Fold Carbohydrate ABC transporter permease.
Amino acid sequence: MTFRFDTKKLITTIIMAIIGLAFLMPFFWMISASLKVEEEVLTFPIQWIPETWHAIENYKEVWTGSMPFFLLYWNSIKVTVLTTLTSVTISCLAAYGFAKINFKGSNVLFLVVLATYMIPPQTLLVTQFLLYRWIGLYDTHTGLILLNSFSVFGTFMLRQFYLGISNEIIESARMDGAGHFRIFTAIALPLVRPAIATYAILRFIWTWNDFQYPLIFLRTEALYTIQLGVQSFSDQHGSVYSLMMAASVSAILPLLIIFIIGQKNVIEGIQLGGVKG
C-alpha cells in the first residue's frame, strides 16, 4: 500500500483549522474570563489560563445572587422543551400530509403556507400582541409556546425528506390494510429520523436563544426565560465582565449539551439530505 501525500488537501485542512480556531476564540475567551478575578479580564496580552482562579466565586454569585437563575432555567427548559415537542409533531404531520397524501389543492395550499415564510415576523408582532391580549394568552408560557410551535421551515424541510420515501413502500403498506396513521408512525417516521432530530435540535436552539417573543409577551418576572434574565443581570452587573461571562456560559451550557448529544443525528441528517439532493 503506497502513501500519497496530498499537499493541496493538507493546506486546505490547515487553513480551515485556523478559520475554525478564529471563530472559537471569543468562546474560549468567554470561558476564560468567567474563571478570573475582574482585574485580569481585560489584561493585554490575553491570559488564557487565569493566574488567580475565581470560578467558584463568580458562578456562585451568578446562581445565588439577586437573579433567580434556577427559576429562569426552569422557565426556559419548560418553554423550550414543550415548544420543540409541539413544533416537531405539527411539522412532521403537516410535512407527511403534503408529501404523501394526495388531495385537491394540496400543491396550492403548500405554496400558500410556504409564502408565509417570506413575511418578516416583526410585522406580525402588533397583531399577535393584540390577539393574545384578547384571548388571554398574554403573559403566559402557553402563549409563548404557541408562538413558536408552527414552523413553515420545519414543514418544508421535513416534506423534502418525506418525498424521498418511495411511493411503492406506501402503496404496499396500504395494500396490506395499513392506514395513513400506521404508515406515518411505523414507516415514515423511522426513515426520516435523522432529519427530525436535526430539526428538533435547531428548534431547541432557536427557542432557547429567543429574546424577542419573551421580551414582548412576558411581563411577570417569575415567568422570565434565561435570555431575559441575562439581560436583567447585565443591567445590574454590566460593568463586571467576569460575572457577565459566567452568566453567559451558564446560559449557553444546555445548548452545548444538546448539540453534543445530538450531533450524530445532525450529521446523519445532513448526509441524508446530501445523498437525496
Notes: Residues 227 and 266 are 25 Å apart (CA to CA). The two ends are 34 Å apart (CA to CA). Residues 65-276 form a domain with the MetI-like fold fold (CATH 1.10.3720.10). The mean pLDDT is 80.
